[in-house]
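testing teh design pipeline on a random one, pls ignore if ur not involved
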C-alpha cells in the first residue's frame, strides 16, 4: 500500500504471475480479496490450466486476465507442454462469456505455432470470443544457458527467434480479425 499513490497516478495495480498463480488457488484468492478491499486494480497472468472451480472463485476479484495461449492444436499442445489444451480453452471461453477483460498472449515459437493456419485459427477464436487485444511474444534464447546450469537438456536448441519481417506478417494477419496487436508484450 505504500506505493498506492504510484498506482493511482499510473493506472497500475497488482499483477499475479508465476509460474502459474492458479496453482495456488486459495492463496491467490486471499490476495485478490485483500487487493479489492484496498481498491487496487488486479491482473492475473495465467495459461488457464487449472480447475474451472478455481477460475470461478477468483474471477470476481480480477480486473484483467493475461491469458497465454501456445497453440490451438491439442496434439501439438500435448507434445510441447505435456498437457492437453482443452481445460485452457474451456477456462478462456468461461472468462470471455462472462465479459472479463482479457489480453491474449501468444508466444510465437517457430515450427510450433507460427504457421499461417494456426494464426488464422487463433485470430478467429479471439474475434469469436470478443477478445480485442493480442500480445505477441517472440521466442527468444535468453534462458538457453539456464538449462546447462541446472544440468538439463534444452528441448529446442536449434530453434531461432522469428525474424522481424515474420513478426510483422503475423501482426498484419491478426489485424484482419479486428484485433489490436502488440509485439513484445
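output:
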Amino acid at each position: 500500500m505504500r506505493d498506492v499513490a504510484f498506482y493511482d497516478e499510473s493506472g497500475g495495480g497488482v499483477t499475479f504471475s508465476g509460474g502459474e498463480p492458479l496453482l495456488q488457488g486459495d492463496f491467490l484468492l486471499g490476495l485478490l480479496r485483500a487487493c479489492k478491499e484496498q481498491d487496487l486494480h488486479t491482473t492475473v497472468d495465467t495459461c488457464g490450466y487449472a480447475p474451472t472451480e478455481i477460475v470461478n472463485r477468483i474471477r470476481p476479484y480480477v480486473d484483467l486476465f493475461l491469458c497465454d495461449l501456445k497453440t490451438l492444436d491439442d496434439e501439438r499442445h500435448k507434445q510441447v507442454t505435456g498437457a492437453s489444451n482443452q481445460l485452457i480453452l474451456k477456462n478462456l471461453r468461461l472468462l470471455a462469456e462472462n465479459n472479463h477483460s482479457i489480453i491474449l498472449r501468444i508466444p510465437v515459437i517457430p515450427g510450433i505455432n507460427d504457421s499461417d493456419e494456426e494464426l488464422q485459427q487463433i485470430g478467429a477464436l479471439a474475434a469469436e470470443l470478443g477478445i480485442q487485444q493480442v500480445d505477441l511474444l517472440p521466442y527468444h534464447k535468453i534462458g538457453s544457458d539456464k538449462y546447462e546450469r541446472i544440468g538439463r537438456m534444452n528441448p529446442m536448441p536449434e530453434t531461432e527467434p522469428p525474424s522481424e519481417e515474420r513478426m510483422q506478417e503475423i501482426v498484419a494477419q491478426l489485424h484482419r480479425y479486428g484485433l489490436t496487436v502488440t509485439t513484445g508484450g
